Write a sequence for this structure.
């Protein structure tokens, strides 16, 4: 996500869609000279509201002459537009009575311990059981800065990443929080189990991330590409256990799948990371180094990545606050198995 975006930010990145996207291409006519691209696309694409179009452009789904642009971009005649149509969904979030694990709440914002397997907001193939549906049921008022399908959402976590996520109740608080993300003031700590032994106790991974060249649900390290954005992750080894490394990651930027891509880039992908480690399930026998054994119980079924701690300034008082989500049961169980192997 671009640093200029202030309505919501990726942290471990957003889940990709399973169905292939529908792409439309346009040549800008003389009559559209000087027009904002979001307004032009709203008129050119039937069946979508301006807010849906604007959000899609903000989410890097529009390119002009091969370059990703923002909704406020002004068009010139003859330019070539490539636009991925938004997902088809209602402009309303359906409230659902889903339990929430609240870490903190006041009049301006809420901090939630998101469980693994929960999508943050509705997307193609994930209409129900989302965090926003749970929030809409629990709270009467949430900010609408991020649009009607993302009430309160200041930043995001992947579906299978658990841990701390911040939700704004009012627009003023939302903008104040988003400014901290934009200015990179927020301190984020993630806990992960990586496959392989990191040779350095601590280091910085500084490698740009862009869209994967041919797998649309993945990101990749890409130098000098139109979709590439700077990405910086500091890591510190907490423990080495056999062929695994327990590592704390402190991303300075917030690119899609950043920690997952960076750890895979240095040869130590996150355990059970379907996209970047090549497997999504870990049996006890495999964790113990015995390979796949019939009947061995499954211990882990999602990427072993947890948003453990987040530090920010209170948007109204300015006081620094730290929020922490305990290591979840599935990761603790996995650690027990590999320590006893």
């Amino acid at each position: 996500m671009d640093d200029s975006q202030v309505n919501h930010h990726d942290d471990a990145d957003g889940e990709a869609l399973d169905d292939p996207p529908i792409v439309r291409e346009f040549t800008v006519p003389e009559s559209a000279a000087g027009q904002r691209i979001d307004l032009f696309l709203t008129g050119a694409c039937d069946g979508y509201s301006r807010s849906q179009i604007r959000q899609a452009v903000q989410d890097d789904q529009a390119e002009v002459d091969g370059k990703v642009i923002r909704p406020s971009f002004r068009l010139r005649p003859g330019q070539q537009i490539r636009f991925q149509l938004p997902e088809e969904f209602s402009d309303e979030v359906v409230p659902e009575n889903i339990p929430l694990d609240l870490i903190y709440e006041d009049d301006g914002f809420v901090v939630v311990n998101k469980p693994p397997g929960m999508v943050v907001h509705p997307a193609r193939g994930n209409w129900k059981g989302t965090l926003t549906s749970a929030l809409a049921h629990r709270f009467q008022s949430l900010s609408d800065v991020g649009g009607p399908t993302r009430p309160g959402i200041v930043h995001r976590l992947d579906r299978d990443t658990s841990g701390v996520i911040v939700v704004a109740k009012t627009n003023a608080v939302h903008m104040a929080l988003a400014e901290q993300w934009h200015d990179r003031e927020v301190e984020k700590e993630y806990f992960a189990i990586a496959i392989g032994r990191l040779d350095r106790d601590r280091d910085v991974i500084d490698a740009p991330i862009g869209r994967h060249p041919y797998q649309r649900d993945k990101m990749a390290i890409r130098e000098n590409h139109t979709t590439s954005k700077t990405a910086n992750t500091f890591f510190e080894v907490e423990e080495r256990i056999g062929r695994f490394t327990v590592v704390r990651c402190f991303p300075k930027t917030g690119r899609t799948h950043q920690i997952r891509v960076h750890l895979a880039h240095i040869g130590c992908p996150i355990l059970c990371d379907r996209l970047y480690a090549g497997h999504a399930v870990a049996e006890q026998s495999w964790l113990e180094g015995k390979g796949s054994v019939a009947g061995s119980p499954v211990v882990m079924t999602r990427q072993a990545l947890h948003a453990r701690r987040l530090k920010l300034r209170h948007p109204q008082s300015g006081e620094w606050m730290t929020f922490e989500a305990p290591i979840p049961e599935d990761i603790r169980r996995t650690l027990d198995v590999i320590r006893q192997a």
